[in-house]
Amino acid sequence: MNTCSQRMSVGSSTRSDGELMDELESVSWYHYDLTRHATEALLLSNGMDGSFLLRNSQRGPDCYALSVRAKDSVKHFHVRRIGGRYSFGFNEFQSLLEFTGHMANQPLLGSESGNLIVLKHPYPREVEEPSIYESVCVHTAMQTGRRHSDLVSTAPALGTKEGYLVKQGAIFKTWKERWFTLNKNELKYFRDKVFAEPIRTLDLTACTAVQFDYSQERVNCFCLVFPERTFYLCAKTGVEADEWIKILRWKLTQCYMKFMDIP
């Protein structure tokens, strides 16, 4: 029998209620049936260098993939479970606990290209996402004549946002409209949407707080607090300001969890 066709019940433990619980469920960074494409999008958008997770492989029910972000790419390594043991590279481990302990103490992986990849940050499957939703106002305003087959699927990056905000100057306290983009842990603002180079890039890992601000003679304002400066921004509506605050706070939470190495 092919080792990759054995049942998932191999290596399981029995709970007091008699139900079988696979030991993989106890690993917070095991992501079940997450696809290779979704894994790469997730780690590249919200992970960092050294972020890794374990997922099922398409090779069979007892075959898995250890996916690791290495700078701007994601590498995938085969892991197999054979008779309750875990085979990884030239090593074999008696249990999942031994396997994860090995990765924690010996986090270097050598790829076929000869590069060394470091396992630093286990990416948990339970991550709180920002609760930002739009309300449907009009759904039949335009007829395009397109059919279902004409719709092309796209995959935008996770946790991104862009739009115009009015920003207060640092020296002269004047307000000017700027185009803002949020991607990964970087908030960039441009002179306008058509400009390719940003005026400035703010590293959110250094930001200490995001909150509504009522000290300015403007409405829908919020601020980003950095050690060297506080940035004051205003949105066109209160709803838009609330959306920016929610997603920015979510980003700060993710930065904090990575900094504290919280699984």
What structural keywords apply?
7-stranded antiparallel beta sheet, alpha+beta, 3 helices, single chain, disordered N terminus, 263 residues, 6-stranded mixed beta sheet
In short:
With 263 residues, the chain is an alpha+beta fold.
Describe this entry's structure for a reader.
It is a single chain. By secondary structure, the chain is of the alpha+beta class. 16% of the residues lie in helices and 32% in strands. It contains three helices and 17 strands. A hairpin with a 2-residue loop joins β4 (63-70) and β5. It is globular, with a radius of gyration of 23 Å. The model is unreliable at 1-21 (pLDDT under 50).
Write the layout of secondary structure elements.
Blueprint: E1 13-14, E2 20-21, H1 36-46, E3 51-56, E4 63-70, E5 73-82, E6 85-88, E7 91-93, H2 96-105, E8 108-110, E9 116-118, E10 121-122, E11 161-168, E12 175-183, E13 186-190, E14 200-203, E15 209-212, E16 221-225, E17 230-234, H3 238-259
Parallel strand pairs: 3-10
Antiparallel strand pairs: 1-2, 3-4, 4-5, 5-6, 6-7, 8-9, 11-12, 11-17, 12-13, 13-14, 15-16, 16-17
Annotation, overall tally of beta strands: 17
Average residue pLDDT: 79
User: Biggest sheet, strands in spatial order?
Assistant: 14-13-12-11-17-16-15
Radius of gyration computed on alpha carbons: 23 Å
Decide which structural class fits the backbone.
alpha+beta
Q: How many helices in DSSP terms?
A: 3
Terminus-to-terminus distance: 36 Å
Query: How would you spell out the order of helices and strands?
Result: EEHEEEEEHEEEEEEEEEEH
Shape: globular
Described by strand count, sense and barrel closure, the largest sheet is: 7 strands, antiparallel
